[in-house]
Every structure is written in C-alpha cells, then in structure tokens.
Amino acid sequence: MINNIKPDPQEERRIWRFDVEGVRQMDDVVIREVPLTIYLNGQEFVTLLYTPEMADMLAVGFLRSEGLVKDFGDITSLRFDGERGFIFVETKNGGLTEKLYGKRTITSGCGKGTVFFSVLDALKNKPVESGLSITYEQVLGLVRQLQENAVLFQATGGIHSAALCHPDGVVYTCEDIGRHNAVDKIIGLCLKNSVSLEDKVLVTSGRISSEILIKTAKLGIPVLLSRAAPTTLSVELADTLGVTLIGFARGRRFNVYTHPERVQINEVIGGNEGEDN
To answer: Where does the protein end up (predicted)?
Structure first.
C-alpha cells in the first residue's frame, strides 16, 4: 500500500563559510523541507510541510491528533505517492471529510501549528489519570537520550525531535522540521503498533505550546517534558487536564510547572547547576 520512494531527508549544498580566518567554500548538509498533501476519503484535506521520512506515520498521527481516527483499525486504505508527495487515506467514517472540507492548512507545524480543534474542545476531555512516576535522574536521562538519538539534528542543526519513552528509556524517536510533525509521527507509530500511552512520557526538543499540550492530553500521556520553555496557556491547560509539565530540562536542573506529585526525588541531587548544555 505504501510507495517505496523515500527521498533523502538531507542534502549537501555548497556554501561560503565566514569566520575569523576569512572566507572559504565548503559542502554543508541542509535538512529538506517538502510538502505532503493528505487526501482524506477522496478529497484534498491538508498540506503539511515536513521532513521526508515516515509520511505514512505522519498522516496517521495527524488524523489521530485531530480526532478523525481513534485507532489504526479506523483506516481502511493508506497509499503514498512519493513522486508527487500525496498520501491517500480512506477511513470507515467518510462523512467527517464533508464536515471539515475547506479547513485546509499549509504549515510545517510550528507557530500556530495544524490543530483544527479548539482549546474549549480540549477542556471537554477527562483529566489524565495515571499512576506513573518518574525520578529526577530519569528526567535528565530521557533528555540526554533524545539528544543522542537526534541524528538529523546532529547533521544539520535544523530540525526538531520528539521521543515516546518509558521513564527508564526511549521507545520511539522521530525528527522533523516541525515539532508538531515529530509528535504526530510518534502518534502514528503508536497507533500502528498498538502501544499503550498511559504509562509513557513524551519528550520534545521544542517550545511547549498549547497545541503540543493538547495533543499530549488527548492521548492520555501523563508527562510532557522539554528542554525548552512552556507558554502560559500550556501551563494552564496542563494543570486542568492532569498533565505533569516539565520544561527547561538542561544540565542538572528542570522546572516542574504542574502536577509535581509524579516527579520523585530519591537520589542525591548534585552536579553543576549552572550547566545548560
């Protein structure tokens, strides 16, 4: 069902490097950004700008994030045309497309993102309930693992990464130019492989916006973790929706903004608190 054409997510370009020693020409690696148009039940639905990897999982995860499918069994057909950048998805409930026709967006998933649902829709969800706990050292370890697994970022410096984790290790890592896209690829993998989410942690490299928080809460993931900052709305939503929100996880420190009861201090906290790398 899936076309095997897989464009390289990065390519070499000739650049001019300026530094204290002068100017020189050299080859550098640049991340690719290409459009992916999702056709849902025969109608053009949305165009995402993404890094050309895992187009099928991005499409599935995006549809799950928007509430258009609940599990992988809701999808009856999935076909990717790699030459044109089209992916064709057929679902059991084809009538949803009629209701959403015209809400087409072109985005990389940064800024406002691709989210069609509203904050009020999210507040209708039941708060996340989970007995998950995570220790101080596990939080820092997951951030380190995310950085180590971010192969495209290490090569290009121009991409976001996200990881689904147990407290003691990474289950999946995905990368994309859009932080929302990276999360949706993770969601697609979870649906395809029937991975439970109520005992997991979502780790992201980017800013924690309300859209990322809503995606997390809708899936029932109890802990959202990032090296970067949250927004005020994401903090308010996390508090209401039962998500433990952790930001600025760098070096030997991090901030817990909501539901700190899931974070356990059972080690001696030491190290250089000024270290932010």
So the answer is: Cytoplasm
Angle at 138 (CA atoms; ends 182, 197), nearest 5 degrees: 50
HEC string of 234-251? HHHHHHHHCCEEEEEEEC
Low-confidence ranges of the chain (pLDDT < 50): 1-4, 103, 105-106, 109, 111-116, 268, 271-274
pLDDT at 276: 54
CA distance 27 to 23: 13
As annotated, the binding site includes 248-253
pTM over 0.85: no
- Amino acid letter for position 255: N
Catalytically annotated residues: 110
Which residues make beta-bridge pairs with 226?
A: 204
Cβ(275)–Cβ(252) under 8 Å?
yes
State residue 154's pLDDT score.
81
Residue 115: per-residue pLDDT: 47
Domains of the chain: 134-264 (3.40.140.10)
Q: Give percent above pLDDT 70 in the chain.
A: 82
**Separation between Cα atoms, residue 193 and residue 189, nearest integer Å:** 6
Q: Is 88 exposed, middle or buried (0-12, 13-18, 19+ CB in 10 A)?
A: middle
Angle at 98 between CA 94 and CA 103, to 5 degrees: 120
What pLDDT is attached to residue 7? Answer: 66
Beta strands 160-166 and 201-204 are antiparallel
